[in-house]
Structures are given as structure tokens and as C-alpha cells.
Design a protein that fits this description.
- 2 copies of one chain form a homodimer.
- Helix content of chain A is about 45%, strand content about 15%.
- By secondary structure, the first copy, chain A, is α/β, with parallel strands linked by helices.
- Chain A has 3 domains: about 5-45, Orthogonal Bundle (434 Repressor (Amino-terminal Domain)), CATH 1.10.260.40; about 60-150 and about 285-310, Rossmann fold; about 155-285, Rossmann fold.
- In chain A, the strands form 2 sheets. A 6-stranded parallel sheet of chain A has the order 2-1-3-4-5-11, sandwiched between helices. In chain A, strands 7-6-8-9-10-12 form a 6-stranded mixed sheet, with helices on both faces.
- In chain A, strand 3 (about 120), helix 7 and strand 4 (about 140) form a beta-alpha-beta unit.
- The first copy, chain A, is elongated.
- The N and C termini of chain A lie far apart (about 70 Å).
- The model of chain A has no long low-confidence stretch (mean pLDDT about 95).
- Chains A and B meet through helix 4, helix 5, strand 2, helix 6 and helix 10 of A and helix 4, helix 5, strand 2, helix 6 and helix 10 of B.
- Chain A binds a DNA duplex through helix 2 and helix 4.
Chain lengths: ~325, ~325
DNA sequence: TTTATGTGTGTAACCGGTTCCACATTTCGA
DNA sequence: TCGAAATGTGGAACCGGTTACACACATAAA
């Protein structure tokens, strides 16, 4: 490994000068600078970030904690974060928390041990003292926290939108799938939808679900039609569940959207490729990830920031699981 | 931040003793050990991995480079890697390469600067000197390299399987979607399928594609039916493309599988949720990721390993886009 | 009893950078 | 022309660990 000493020797200067040169701090004479730059090139030198980090107590690393990258909503977020970070030369240490406090704790611990300069987390416990104790900036992604920086979309409005669009398209006996109770955005959506249904005096049922997993989605879809065979509109807690509902409806010989309309949530990439393609409430996941990255970078570099809670808009994406209106 | 010195002071011993104690190297008297352990607990001490890494030139970090986490095949791989690493207390620095040599180079560079002890990469250039020059172990994932450690599945066999199953189910005018030429596994699949079609003397067409992206998948599906409207069997290069084909076929009023059969590749999670659910050639992506992690760990800890090229089996998953045989 | 060996502990060098400080030289305003 | 300020450079301390080495003491073998 070529070190700063090798460069110094090659250039005939001290390590201090090399350091000042590559960091552009302090005075360096133009001629000296040239010698150093030549040496760097000749030896193909890249500074050891570990040594740097030890002294400065900083790094170019941030920690990213997501519940489960296998859930198709999260890759979008992750990619947004990554692109935002990559453009600013930060690197990401990544972990899946499985919404498990212990794992979350462990990851945060090792993030700190590796001198990360910031953390982005999609946690259900933003107010846990795991985070309160950290003395580096944290951005909560897809999760709200009143007084911590966060990037999220308006779940309640999304839920309202879903219900409004479904009512406008004529469903009378609506079933709302209520997502996992411990996941805040899921509850917001649910809340929003129920509000609108109540306001409109529409008949509705609730099916409780407890995860967003593929495997279980199918069983809730079955439960839904077993309990409410005559439902003519389903507001799903996310696109995976919506897909399972669609699948089950078709298996039962129902026509979508004629017999039953379905609206999902998230707008994951495959939604548009289903048959019929899935109408859904879109969250701009990629943008959310990117905003989170940029917000975190601002917090890291400027210490504090005015707009610390960024809410991105949701929108109704009309596809083929809902009927057309004029 | 609490350092080893604080622990030493609190326990009334030297830092060397604390170090020996927490690393379980050298002699430590039982009484002393207790004092140190108490101090560690009392101060809630966790060693600074950066300082450790600087001296030992090692770390508990590995680099993971995937083309694009947004492609639904990769989260599975990533998750497998993560679980394998997590269980052995390694952490992952993650990057998306976009199959772009420059980005790949940059990531590998920063991996090294951060003292990672190993790399897992899904690259199209396993033989590039980016990797040859590294003096830490590298495992190629989902990519083959004759003389480097790798974990992959048998693409050619998968392609053969797809063609065989399709022929066995009566398709006569088959269209094979050929994946991007620079992606080795895609070409293996294609090769395998074409071999079988040739051997069987079946009429077939080829549609060339150049990426696995969602956006473009739809246009290839359109192109496919525009050129070969009468095709009665499509072997897709992966499940995304297969989904787009399915979607387009249905849009054109074709019945699947009666009028046209479709076989995908990968078995991404959503495949089973499509309507009709997608028959596909399954690659055990999660297991591949996990195997890659374990192989890399063996390489890191033992220096070398006998079985460095791990091939995992592919299998035909029969669902509803293919006809039933007795 | 002597000597070798095993056990237990502390001091200090080291990893590869960054930065404080001292010192030398140059530039510039009065 | 002189003193102050600006410019340029190197030595050495420092970041928080690990480990080589020296040394003290206990135990066992000769």
C-alpha cells in the first residue's frame, strides 16, 4: 500500500505538505504543489480513509437502515439515497432491520464504531433513545418524527385520495385493508381512507393485516373475499397486498374493475405491468430517498437546516383496476 | 466518546491489558478480567473499529457491488449476502454500478480506502484488472469467472429447461427474447434455449433486448407481437420482460396460456402474484447471495478454499402461463 | 537450589493520516 | 529602510486502538 510518506519521499517534501496539498488547506507553493501532484499520480496514491477518519473523527460513510430490501418499495428508496450520496462522494453502510429493535440497535452501534457521519433510517421507533443518544445527524425516511429531520409522504392524504377516487368511481361496499399497526405510514393511510368513507357515509369493512410480506399477502386476500365476497372496492395497504387481492379476485372469477375495483399504495414498478395494470396512490420513493440523502448531507455539512421535515406529494395513478369517469 | 483509556483508568489497569482482555489474546488474570469487564459495562464501551482497522489493516467491512438494486432480482441477492454477513458480524458497504465501468472503479477504489476485507461483485468484467489488482478476496456473484471464486446458477441449463418445457407443452412457433449481449448469464440462457430449439427442429424467432429495465420491457413486448403476432410461446430473458410480454399479450386479447405460453427467468417474488401467475425458471437468488457471503468469509478467514466455484441449481416453476401436461 | 517455563502486566512503538506550532522567507505598507 | 503581515515548509503530537518487548513473579523440573 502506498502511503502519504511514500508520496512525500517521492516529491522530496514532508508529509505535512502533502497533506496540505491534497486537502487544499494552508499554503502550498505552486511549484511544490506540482511536485506533489506528480508524485501522487506516479505512485497512484489514494489516501487511507481509515487513518483520516481516526484523526478527524469524521468519514465519508453514512449508515442506511431499512426494514427489508426485499420488499419492492425499499429498493427505490435505497437507490434514491445511494444516488444522492454517490453524487456527494459519500458511501453507504447498509443494513436490514426487519423492524427488529435488537438488529436496529446492533447496526446503529456498528455504524458508530465505524465513524459514520450520519444515519438514514426507516424505523418504527424514531423516538427511541437509540436515536436520541446519537450525536450525529439522523434523517428518518418514510417515517415521521415531530422534532427530528424526516422525509416522508402524506399518508393520510393518500388514504383520503384512494377513498375519494374509489367512491367517485362508484364502489358502494368497500373493504379497507389496514396495514400493520406498528407502521405509522400504514396507519395514516388507513386513517385517511376511513375518514373519507365515514364522511361520505359509505358502507365499509376492515381487514387487519400484520405485515407487507408476499407470502402473507395471499392469505389476507383470501380472507378478504371469504369474509366479504360481495365487496366491490378494495383499498389495499400497499401494492403487494393489492396485487394479491387482484390475483385472488381473478381466481374467483371476478372482473376487475367491473365487479370490484382495487387501489394500491406506493406505485412499485411492477404495478404498471400487471393485468389489468394497477391503479394506485403513488409515493415518489426514489425522490424521497434522494431528498433524504441531500437533507442529511446538509445537516452534516451545515450543522443545522431550516426545512428539516420534507413532505413529498402523493398522487393518484389511474390505471386499469379502477373504472373510468368522465 | 469513551475510549480504551477510559476503560483502563476505570479498571485500574493499562490499555494493553484491556485490549488483551476484549480480544481474548494473551494472558489475563481472572480477577483482572472481571475488573475490565465491569469497566466496559459501566462505561458502555465499544471499541473504535476505525482505530482497530488502522493498525491491523483489517476491518469487519466488505464491499458489495450490484448493477442496480432497483431491478427486482437483486434485492434477493443483496438480502442473502446481508444475512450471511450479518450472522458473522460483517457489515456491508453497498454500491450500484449501473454496469458502468467508471462507477465500478470508483466504488472499488473507495472500498479499498476504507479497508474492506473482501468484495462481492456482480460485474460484467470479472477479468478486468480492477479486480485482478486487488489483494483482498473477491467473489463474483451471478457471474462466472473461470479462475476466480464465484457463485452462480446454470444459465445454459435454465435456458434448455425453458425450451424443453415449452416444447413439451406444445408451442410450435417460439420467440426467444435475447437479453443484453454484455451480460453473460443472459447469453447463457439464450444459448441453452436455442440449442434445444435447434435440436428439436422447432421454428423460432429472436428478439434482441438491451437491458432489463421496466421502462423498456414494455416496448420490447410490443415489438415482439408486432413482428411475430402468431407466436405461440415466448421464452423471456427474465421475469420483468416476461411480465411485460404477458401484459402486452393480454392487451392484444390473447389468451395465456392457450394462445401463447410464456416462461420467464429468475422467479422474482411478484411472479407468483401475476394473473395468470408466471411460469418461470427459478434461480435461488437469496441462497446465491448467502453462499457468496459464506464463501467470501471462508476466503477471508482461511485464505484459500477448495470449492471456489459454487453453482446452484435452476428449476422449472410451473404456474399458469404454461399449459398443463399429464 | 538452580534453571527453565508459564503467567500476568505495563511501556512504548506503530498504523497513516491531520494539524498545531515554530521557524524561515517573501511581500508590502509606512 | 524597517517592521508587520503573508506565505511556505517541516517536526512532532495526536487520533484510539494492537502488539512487541521487557520485566516480575509463580511454578515445575532437574
Amino acid at each position: 500500500m502506498v502511503t502519504i510518506k511514500d508520496v512525500a519521499r517521492h516529491a522530496g517534501v514532508s508529509v505535512a505538505t502533502v497533506s496540505r496539498c491534497i486537502n487544499e488547506t494552508g499554503y502550498v507553493h505552486a511549484d511544490t504543489r506540482k511536485k506533489v501532484e506528480d508524485a501522487v499520480r506516479a505512485l497512484n496514491y489514494a489516501p487511507n480513509e481509515v487513518a483520516r477518519s481516526l484523526y478527524t473523527r469524521k468519514s465519508k460513510l453514512i449508515g442506511l437502515l431499512l426494514p427489508d430490501i426485499t420488499n419492492p418499495y425499499f429498493p427505490q428508496l435505497a437507490r434514491g439515497v445511494e444516488d444522492g450520496m454517490q453524487a456527494n462522494e459519500f458511501r453507504i453502510i447498509f443494513g436490514n432491520s426487519d423492524e427488529n429493535e435488537q438488529k436496529e440497535q446492533e447496526y446503529i452501534q456498528t455504524f458508530i464504531q465505524n465513524n459514520v457521519v450520519g444515519v438514514i433510517s426507516s424505523t418504527n421507533r424514531p423516538d427511541s433513545d437509540i436515536y436520541a443518544k446519537l450525536n450525529i445527524p439522523v434523517v428518518f425516511l418514510d417515517r415521521t418524527s415531530s422534532d427530528s429531520p424526516s422525509v416522508y409522504s402524506d399518508g393520510r392524504k393518500g388514504g383520503r385520495l384512494a377513498a375519494q377516487e374509489m367512491i367517485a368511481r362508484g364502489s358502494k361496499r368497500i373493504t379497507v385493508l389496514r396495514g400493520p399497526v406498528h407502521i405509522r405510514p400504514a396507519q395514516d393511510r388507513f386513517q385517511g381512507a376511513v375518514e373519507v368513507l365515514e364522511e361520505a357515509g359509505i358502507d365499509y369493512n376492515i381487514i387487519q393485516t400484520s405485515s407487507f410480506s408476499f407470502a402473507e399477502a395471499e392469505s389476507w386476500a383470501k380472507e378478504l373475499f371469504a369474509k366479504h365476497l360481495d365487496t366491490d372496492g378494495v383499498i389495499a395497504s400497499n401494492d403487494i397486498v393489492a396485487t394479491a387481492v387482484l390475483h385472488e379476485a381473478q381466481r374467483l372469477g371476478k372482473r376487475v374493475p367491473e365487479d370490484v375495483q382495487v387501489i394500491g399504495f406506493d406505485d412499485i414498478p411492477l404495478s404498471s405491468l400487471l393485468s389489468p395494470s394497477l391503479s394506485t396512490i403513488r409515493q415518489p420513493a426514489y425522490d424521497m430517498g434522494k431528498e433524504a440523502a441531500l437533507l442529511l448531507i446538509r445537516l452534516i455539512e451545515q450543522g443545522k437546516v431550516d426545512n428539516r421535515n420534507i413532505q413529498l406529494p402523493v398522487s393518484f395513478v389511474e390505471r386499469d383496476t379502477t373504472r373510468k369517469v368522465d
